[in-house]
Give the backbone structure.
Amino acid sequence: MEPSSRWRRWLPPAWVTLLSLAIMAPTLWPGFILTYDMVFTPRQSLLPDSLGLGSSLPRAVPQDAVVALVEVVVPGELLQKAILLAIPLLAGFGMLRLLRDAPLPARIVASTLAVWNPYVAERLVIGHWGLLLAYALAPWALAVALDMRRGRPGSPVSLVLLIAAGSLTPSGSILLLVLALPIAVLPGSAARVRTKALTCVSGLACALPWLLPAVLNPALTNVDAGGARVFALRDEGMGVALTAMGLGGIWNADVVLPSRAWPLATAVAVALFLLGTVGVRPLARHVGRAAVIWWIAVAIVGLAAAIASSVAPSAWGAVLDVVPGAGIVRDAQKLLAPLALLVAAAAGMGVARLLIRVRDAAVRGALLALVVIIPIAALPDLAWGASGRLQAVAYPSAWSEVRDTLATDPRPGDVAVLPWSAFRQFPWNSQRTLLDPAPRWLTRPTVVADALTVSTPEGLVTISGEDPRARAVGNALQQGQSLAPVLAAEGIGWVLVELGQRPAVPPAALGGLIPVRDGPDLALYAVPGTVVDTPLPAYATAVILVDALVAALLVVLALTGLRRAVRARRSKERGGTGEPLVR
Amino acid sequence: MGSGIVGIIIAAVVGAVVAGGASFGIISSQTAVPPTVDAPYVVYGSNN
């Protein structure tokens, strides 16, 4: 092999690996990375809530169930590190796979932009790893959808498995279903009608584990429409449109990296958009006209919706109110994922198109380096675990002690968690805001505060939760009375108090409870007279049956794909042709 | 100019920027202060 050919082959994967490590290296230290919605524990239990059968809305379904099952064999700490490192690696390598026949500059630039952008940065800090996993799998799903379009055998199975892997959360599931599946089956696809139909049905089936409990859960009707305004795209100082086009604008200012306020961020947003415009035509030649048109259409709808959430919040709120289940996308900046990938791929192709006109290899190389460096230099604080925001920490031993107590104590009932707030700020986690880890630590279902308080220009706004049991506990707390009778009536047999957290627990609330543990870090009380009469909801059988069927389908598909891969390998060894995953 | 020298220059410049980014990140991580809390309870975030 020629040295230059070897160099060209290894540079893109080596570059993606370097970028991924530059972001994720601190997450590989021992401990858990606990930030906002990202909560991992050593060993999560499979509970009714994990399948969407609890009293709250299934927002992390089937994510929690999958994590609980994987943690039977893989420790939670290791699983979290693997997932976090996999996100940039998958996004970058996926872009290399999607553009595998494109010129080297296109592949380098596209993979850089897919890994290193404000969308990834903001979603990482807020802890939406399930969505980011789907984002990272999207280029792979697009590549496989294009294979299916070209009639390549085995691609329908791969596409369904990729959609399944990205369907840990509702938003990730929707991203892959809307972006990739139609490309595989749009007019012009070489796949047979039967294959298209089976792929569509199987792909949509991957959404059932979250869709079914969401539709059947009566809590769906309790969704607070006020969330649309609070979780709308937020102007990061460059105007709403440029913020969205620059892939930033998450609702929460506290997770936005400081470099987003730099003028360079605006300049890069504009430049990448222009480069993307130049690259659309070569991208269309590479992936096909129909695929690009669909990709652009999805990206534009996402961009328009994200902008609308900010400039016309009332109208956006009305849409979310009217369309059943649309509340899933009330956090509208999520919808920029297809645009983020499109800008990466098209800007990459645009750079290659422009560089081809430069004759001098040295100038060409220098310009490429510049194009790669500038987006990184415009967002340098994504490096090193988003400037230390993703820092590994150890839980105090109290957590595993309480878990053991609740796992072994014969007294029945679920666990109410106090103080009555959905989020925590622990000193051992550098006071970072964190979703209460109790539901993922304990072996019993928990009842936690599910109302979200957000600071807005109009003052503090509380988005009410959906869980009726949480509402009953919250009301009792407000009235300043002992919680014991309410808890007993709701089938709650235990109260966990996370010490040192706000708001202070009124002493009267704990009146009548039996102390079991009193610190450090955690206190535990038993509720006398709890009668456990909280059967699974009527739709539980249907949900469990559908989950089992989907799991069986995926196992069959995985085995089919594996058999095909083994056969292809053997054929290659015998002298046939085989295609590497990343060229 | 040979392609080897160009490669070395590019690698040096890109490496310097990534190293600079990482240093920036490390320094920021040591000096970052958690957002101030303006409520008696923990707020999810701020869209101010």
